[in-house]
C-alpha cells in the first residue's frame, strides 16, 4: 500500500505554486506596462513640433517696432463684438507693457466673415493703410469704437468715409470712397481671408504669437502676459 499523502505538505506546495504564478503574472503585467509607457514616451519625444505659420509681416499694418522679437498677428472682423472688446481692453495693456517698449510688434489680418459690410470695412482700412500707414491704427480704433449692431448693416462706404473725416485722418477722402466702391484692395483682403482658411482660423479674434496660434482665452490678460513673457525669455 502506497504511503499516505501529507495533506499539509500538499496544501503548502499548491500555495507556493499559486504564489509563483501570481508573481509571474505581475512580472508580465509590469513588463508590458513598462514597454507601453516607454513607447508612449518615445512617441512624445519624436513627434514633430508644431510648425510656425509664415507671415509676410512687411505687407501687414504694424503697431510697434517691426524689429521686436515677439510678433503678434490678430485675425479679426470689424463687426465682431469680441474683437472690439480685445481692442479696447487687451490691446491698450499690450501697448503699455510691451509694444511701446519695443518688445512686441502687433499686426492685423482681415477675416471679414460676419456679413458683407465686414468686407466693406476691410476694404476701407486697407485703403487707409496704403494712403497713410501712420493714420491706420487711429482709424482702426475708431471703426471698433463706432461699431454697430452685429446683425445690422452699418459699415457702409458713406459711414466709413464720414468716420475718417470725423477722425481728421490725413488722407484723400475721395480716394478712400473710390477705393471702397471700386474694391481696389479686394485682392489683398481675399488673400488675407485665404490665409486664415489655410491656417484653419475659424473664429475672431484669433492671435498668432511668433507664428503659433495662442491657445488660451484672449480675455485673460494675465495668461496672455505669461505666454508673451515666456516667448521673450526664449529670445
Descriptive terms for the model:
235 residues, alpha+beta, Glutaredoxin, 2 domains, five-stranded mixed β-sheet, 9% strand, elongated, disordered N terminus, oxidoreductase, Thioredoxin-like_sf, disulfide bond
For the record, the CATH architecture of the largest domain stands as 3-Layer(aba) Sandwich
| Low-pLDDT residue spans | 1-5, 33-48
Radius of gyration over all CA atoms, rounded: 31 Å
Q: Which band does the percent of strand residues land in?
A: 5-15%
Strand order of the largest sheet: 1-3-2-4-5
Largest β-sheet summary? 5 strands, mixed
Structural class: alpha+beta
Mean pLDDT: 87
How would you sum up the global shape? Answer: elongated
Keywords: Disulfide bond, Membrane, Oxidoreductase, Redox-active center, Signal, Transmembrane, Transmembrane helix
InterPro entries: Thioredoxin-like_fold, Thioredoxin-like_sf, Thioredoxin_domain
Family: Belongs to the thioredoxin family. DsbA subfamily.
Pfam families: Thioredoxin_4
General description of the model:
This protein has 235 residues and is α+β, with helices and mostly antiparallel strands. The protein has two domains: 1-47; 57-233, Glutaredoxin (3-Layer(aba) Sandwich), CATH 3.40.30.10. It has helices at 7-46, 81-99, 116-131, 133-145, 157-166, 173-182, 186-198, 221-233; strands spanning 62-63, 70-76, 104-110, 206-209, 212-213. It has a five-stranded mixed β-sheet. Helix 2 (81-99) links the parallel strand 2 (70-76) and strand 3 (104-110). Helix 3 (116-131) packs antiparallel against helix 4, helix 3 packs across helix 6 and helix 5 packs antiparallel against helix 6. The radius of gyration is 31 Å and the shape is elongated. Mean pLDDT is 87; it is low at 1-5 and 33-48.
Amino acid at each position: 500500500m502506497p504511503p499516505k499523502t501529507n495533506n499539509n505538505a500538499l496544501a503548502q506546495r499548491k500555495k507556493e505554486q499559486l504564489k509563483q504564478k501570481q508573481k509571474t503574472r505581475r512580472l508580465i503585467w509590469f513588463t508590458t506596462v513598462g514597454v507601453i509607457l516607454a513607447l508612449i514616451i518615445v512617441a512624445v519625444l519624436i513627434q514633430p513640433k508644431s510648425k510656425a505659420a509664415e507671415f509676410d509681416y512687411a505687407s501687414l499694418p504694424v503697431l510697434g517696432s517691426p524689429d521686436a522679437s515677439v510678433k503678434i498677428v490678430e485675425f479679426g472682423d470689424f463687426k465682431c463684438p469680441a474683437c472690439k472688446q480685445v481692442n479696447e481692453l487687451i490691446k491698450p495693456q499690450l501697448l503699455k507693457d510691451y509694444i511701446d517698449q519695443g518688445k512686441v510688434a502687433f499686426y492685423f489680418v482681415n477675416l471679414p466673415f460676419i456679413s458683407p459690410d465686414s468686407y466693406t470695412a476691410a476694404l476701407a482700412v486697407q485703403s487707409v493703410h496704403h494712403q497713410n500707414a501712420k493714420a491706420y491704427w487711429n482709424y482702426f480704433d475708431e471703426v471698433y469704437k463706432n461699431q454697430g449692431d452685429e446683425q445690422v448693416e452699418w459699415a457702409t462706404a458713406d459711414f466709413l468715409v464720414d468716420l475718417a473725416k470725423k477722425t481728421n485722418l490725413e488722407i484723400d477722402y475721395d480716394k478712400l470712397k473710390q477705393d471702397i466702391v471700386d474694391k481696389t484692395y479686394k485682392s489683398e483682403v481675399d488673400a488675407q481671408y485665404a490665409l486664415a482658411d489655410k491656417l484653419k482660423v475659424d473664429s475672431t479674434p484669433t492671435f498668432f504669437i511668433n507664428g503659433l496660434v495662442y491657445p488660451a482665452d484672449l480675455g485673460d490678460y494675465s495668461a496672455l502676459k505669461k505666454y508673451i513673457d515666456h516667448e521673450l525669455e526664449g529670445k
